[in-house]
Amino acid sequence: MNPVNIDAPENDTYINGRRTPDPASSSINTEQVRPPMSESSFTNMLPPDSGEHTFTPLIEPAKLKQEMPISGIAEQTVLEGRDEIKNILLKTDPRLLVVVGPCSIHDEKAALAYAEKLRRLKTDVSGTLCIVMRAYFEKPRTNIGWKGLLNDPCLNGSCDMSEGLRRARQLLLDISEMGLPVATEMLDPSTPAYLSDLVSWTAIGARTTESQTHREMASGLPMPVGFKNSTDGSLSAALNAIKAASMPQSFPGVSPYGRTCIVRTAGNPWGHVVLRGGKQPNYHTEDLEVARRELKEKGLADILMIDCSHGNSRKDYRKQANVLKDVLAQRTRGNSAIIGLMLESNLHAGNQPLSGDLSELKYGVSITDACISWDETQDLLLYADRVLRTKG
Length: 392
Ligand SMILES: O=C[C@H](O)[C@H](O)COP(=O)(O)O
Ligand SMILES: C=C(OP(=O)(O)O)C(=O)O
Description:
392 residues; alpha/beta; CATH 3.20.20.70; 2 domains; 11 helices; globular; binds erythose-4-phosphate; binds phosphoenolpyruvate; Aldolase_TIM; transferase; amino-acid biosynthesis
C-alpha cells in the first residue's frame, strides 16, 4: 500500500519514504528535510539494497472529477449503456452485445476517429446489436512492455500517470458525449475511483481473474463485469470470481479523497464469463457445452460472452472473423447462452512495435495486439446484423 501522506502538498515527491518538497514551490534543501516519525519508520522498513524508490502523489479522484466533471449527455450514455447490457444479461433484450475497438488506445485522435465511425454504424445495426466501444487504457503484460495510456501516456517510459489519468478521462468524456457507451479493463484497483463513472462495461482480464484484489474491486463496480477465463484456458477462476464479486466485500482501498481506508462494497450481481481461449480456442460447440455445464454446476446463470481475439484467434487477428461467424451460427442454431462478442479492431489492420522514434508510428495501427481493420469490422458487424435479422 502506498504510504504517501495525503495531507502533504500535491507535488511533493517521496524518495525512499522521505518527503521531498516540490522544488518549484520550495527553497528548502531536501537534505535538510527531517521526515516525521511515520515516514522515517517507513524508511527503516525498506531493505538496505532496495535502491531508490520514489513516491509522487497523484491528484485525488474527487479533485479530478471536479476538474473534469461528467456532463449530462455523457452520464445518460453511460447509464443507458449499463441498462442495455443488464437487460441483455437478463435476456429481456434479445440483442447481441458487441464490445469492439482497439486493443489499447495510444493516440486519442485516432481513437475519436474510430469512435465516430462506430457511432454511425451503431445506429444502423441497433435492432440486433448493442455496440459498446473498447477503450482500454491499462494493459496487463505477460512479462514486460508498454502498460497503457494511463501508465505511460507519452509512450517514452516517463510514466506520467497524472497526465494519463487526465487524458483517459477526457477521452471517455468525449466518446460518451458522442452517445457511444464505453468498455474498459480495470487493472489497477485505484483506477475505478477516477474513471468508473464513465464506463458501461468492465473486463477483469485473464491474468487477474483469480486475484482476490480484483474480485473485491469488481464487487464495488457500478457496471456489469466480464471475467475472462484464465490464460491456460481454465474456467474455474472466472466462475469463482463471479461468485466472490457478487458478495459484499470489505478490503483496504482508497477513498475519493485519496485516503487509504476500509472499503465496504455491496456486491456486483452482473458478473459473467468471457471465453477468450487459452492453450486452445474455447469457442467451439463442445467448449460452450462444457462451459454451460460448469456454470450450471456452480449455480450460475447460463450466460456466455465470446472474445474473438486472444486465445480464440490464436493471436492471429485474421482469424477473428472465423470465430465471429462460428459463434453467430451457434447462436442462430439456438444456443441461448451466447449473449455477446468481443472484437479487437482499429482503423487499420495489424500492429506495430513501439520503438524509440515515435514519429515512425503509423496512424490508427495498434501498438499492442494486432487488430482487424475498420473496413473488416464494418463488414463483420453488418454481416452479424443480417444474420440475426434473418435467422434470429
Ligand atoms: O490484449 C492484450 C494482450 O494480449 C495482453 O496485454 C498481453 O500482452 P503481452 O503478452 O504482449 O504482454
Ligand atoms: C488483455 C486482454 O485480454 P485477456 O485478459 O483475455 O488477455 C484484453 O482484452 O485486452
